[in-house]
């Protein structure tokens, strides 16, 4: 039985995406710091010392999600007929951001490998790898294939989009379409 996808008016959907992507980044960052504080239970002079093995992928994740929030906010401004970047301009900007994100994601791989060999804090490594995968998923979702689908009853589809990703049958993301418009000139 096919799941019924949720349909909202376009303006409402764009506002939802713009706002909740930003809220999501803030929430994940807040959860990170709360978990770090509780997990470390270090109330001394190192209470707020960052663990770069886990903080770096959090930072990259937040950057990608905030880029997405700005993208949806621009689309909302277009729908409301306010001053906004055109699809071509967005494609130009985000085609560069896409590669910056790839570089940021790639830089983490040797860092985590070195951390494993140096036997760094296991909690930090696990948290870092999970945050890294979240950042990779967001990168794919925004810049390549749409992975997020909400059903009519508010649930998120997870398995179907992943199947589409691995079989190559996924629908291009809207941002990717804008990037393609720019690349075609």
Structure description:
The chain is an all-alpha fold and 185 residues long. It is built from 6 helices and 2 strands; from the N terminus they run ααααββαα. Strands 1-2 form a two-stranded antiparallel ribbon. Strand 1 and strand 2 form a beta hairpin. The chain is globular, with a radius of gyration of 18 Å. The termini are far apart. The mean pLDDT is 85.
Search tags:
single chain; 185 residues; mainly alpha; two-stranded antiparallel ribbon; 6 helices
Q: Report how far the terminal alpha carbons are from each other.
A: 42 Å
Low-pLDDT residue spans: none
User: In sequence order, what are the helices and strands, one letter per element?
Assistant: HHHHEEHH
Largest sheet: 2 strands, antiparallel
Strand content is under 5%
Total number of helices: 6
Helix content: over 70%
Alpha-beta classification: mainly alpha
Mean model confidence by pLDDT: 85
Across the major sheet, the strand order is 1-2
Instruction: Work out the radius of gyration.
Output: 18 Å
Count of DSSP strands: 2
- Principal-axis shape equals globular
């Amino acid at each position: 039985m096919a799941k019924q996808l949720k349909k909202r008016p376009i303006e409402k959907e764009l506002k939802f995406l713009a706002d909740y992507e930003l809220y999501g980044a803030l929430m994940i960052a807040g959860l990170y710091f709360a978990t770090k504080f509780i997990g470390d239970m270090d109330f001394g002079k190192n209470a707020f010392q960052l663990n770069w093995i886990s903080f770096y992928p959090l930072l990259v994740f937040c950057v990608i999600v905030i880029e997405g929030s700005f993208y949806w906010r621009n689309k909302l401004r277009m729908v409301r007929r306010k001053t906004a970047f055109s699809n071509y301009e967005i494609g130009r900007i985000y085609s560069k951001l896409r590669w910056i994100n790839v570089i940021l994601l790639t830089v983490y791989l040797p860092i985590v490998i070195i951390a494993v060999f140096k036997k760094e804090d296991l909690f930090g490594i696990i948290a870092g790898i999970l945050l890294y995968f979240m950042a990779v998923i967001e990168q794919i979702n925004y810049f390549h294939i749409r992975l997020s689908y909400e059903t009519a009853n508010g649930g998120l589809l997870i398995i179907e989009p992943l199947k589409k990703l691995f079989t190559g049958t996924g629908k291009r993301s809207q941002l990717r379409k804008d990037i393609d418009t720019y690349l075609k000139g």
